[in-house]
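Forum: Protein Structure Q&A
Topic: Joint prediction for protein chains with partners

I've read a bunch of threads here and the consensus seems to be that you should model interacting components together rather than docking separate models afterwards. I'd like to see that in practice. Below is the full input, 572 residues plus whatever partners are listed. Could one of the regulars post the assembled result?
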Amino acid sequence: MRSLGWRRFVNRFWTVASAAGVVAALVPLASLLWLVVSHGAAGLSLGFFTNLPAPVGETGGGVGNGILGTLLLVALASVIALPVGIGAGVFLAEKGNGRAGDVIRFVTEVLSGVPSIVIGIVAYGLVVAPMKRFSALAGGFALALLMVPTLARSTEEFVRLVPGALREASLALGVPKWKTSLLVILRTAAGGIITAVLLAVARAAGETAPLLFTALNNQYWNFRADQPTASLTVQIFNYAISPYEDWHNKAWTAALVLLLLVGLLNLLARLLSRNRMEGAR
Amino acid sequence: MTLAQDVATRVAPQHRDERPAPPKPTVAPPNPPSRSGAADEEQPKLRISGLNAWYGQNHALRDVSLVVPPRSVMAAIGPSGCGKSTFLRCLNRMHELVPGARAEGTLLLDGEDLLSRQVDPVVLRRRVGMVFQRPNPFPTMSVRENVAAGLRLNGLRGSHDEIVEHALRKAALWDEVKDRLDASAIGLSGGQQQRLCIARALAVQPEVLLMDEPASALDPIATAKVEDLIHELKENYTIVIVTHNMQQAARVSDQTAFFYMGELVEVGPTEKIFTNPDKAQTNDYVTGKFG
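Posted by a regular:
Agreed with the consensus. Here's the joint model:
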């Protein structure tokens, strides 16, 4: 038996050590935020959100088409990934206890571990090559490939959280199984799934590698799915590797805009999940 | 037009689509015009013979035979694991939801074999409703939506307000919730939630109501309300109730069936089972010597 003083010391030591761990983890995050804000805030203006990129040497110009492009890409990716990912998740939760479930679960795990640049190459081979052009569709497809596995797994988790009693209640009312899954189980899990969707969207919006040779880039506004499209991330990449001071600054500002966009999505997800927790009690 | 007819006309066409060969109308009027007590005994609502049920290798129900007259309450009692819940679940084929579960025997509802392959369990469950041990209202739905859920989820559109009110009145809940029909069902107390679940089951106009320990999660006052309700409901419905609480069985039921180790030991009028049973085992159980 050690003395009380010694135990107090050990207690204090580990409290300080774990607090130091928290600080160490927060320092990179804080410095990242500080760096982006301090370099990027100066360039923020209304025009930056609405204008097309300006050629080198010209003042003004913005990343309006990049913002629009990112939104377009994410929308296309969601249209492809949501039905597949949520459908797969519901299947895994409802019917996934057999061999098929194990196989699908393994495949989604592998897929979520594939580096995003490889996903980009696959999208190039599957969409860009046959279409013989870079397009927003190819970019959306690549992002969808990234979203599907996370969506499937988190949907599965949220659907499994729905109490079995609700399934029984619905079936006992003479509601067919498929309707029970869609209208009762999925509806009850909807709050969690919406959160998962927003997080997947936020993650997809921040991807660069899968877009480099799928959506490529575009100096102009593009509203069409079959045309190359600008995106915030690729725009940042291009600005950052350029030799021009002016473009470097723009890269910082665009990075800030991207952070704001992703942060907004995360915040929305938080709010929705909090409302859901309160609703469930 | 009475409510029952209204529901019948609205429900019937859809059932016709889903049932290959309906041997009889799906929604029978819950209260047939006139029938004497003697006729009741000739025409049991449920006639069960040689019912066996298994969970995998586990023989959970052995050769159970009994009849339930219409518009009466049958209580199933017995110690935990005696098969009474399995028995109840076989009656609307909810046992099929458990992987590896199967049932054999004859289960006649108005003369129609419920275990036959021709009977779609989905349609059967609209005729044989169920109330569970724990109140399980749909948490994302309002009070009104919960009661109408059985109709809405089965594809009946439009306003169900009349049916909702009727079902809530039958479940003795209308006065307590009429001002907050659009509030979340989760906000109700446990006893109210359970009566809401009863209203939800009644809204699809079942003929038989199965209750699996409906009051075991409730406080004494809420329990009394549910028991009163059972008394009223048996005017229109045939009720089979599983209960751990022997006083409750004695209070609410006309007949009592005592299960032990998967076998039906004895079934008879409740008064007889509790005061002068034929089997010593039954006597030991109802007097609290074991179980």
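Residues 277-281 of chain A have pLDDT under 50 and may be disordered.
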